[in-house]
Amino acid sequence: ESLAAHFTSTSPAQSTTLKDCVHYLASLSAEAKIYFDQVKIVANPLLVMPATNAGSERSFLNMRRVKSYMHTTMRQDRLNHLMTLSIYKEEVDKLDPVAVANEFVRKCEHRSRFFGKFS
User: Fold this and answer.
1) Averaged pLDDT, 80-109
2) 58 contact partners, CB below 8 Å, separation of at least 6
């Protein structure tokens, strides 16, 4: 029985659910499952695609906020770093600023002479 015939044979009042599809695919023979591996490869990007573009809209809003604050005096790499900090604000808020500052100073000898150690 084909996939289309299997699901059109259900009553019109009853809608097909994802669970119905999973049960149907599990009941297929091993030979038929080989073909559905290719369908899975094609369908996987569609299943993980976000339903809205709210994430990208938030990113552009953050970029506009950062750019308006810094105007045009920054290079692209600095803008990328600031955007990353802005997007992952919850994770950044969990960081210890003193530990981050000490790690920054430790990276270079002249920084440690200039800044010393933060406490």
Assistant:
1) 87
2) 87
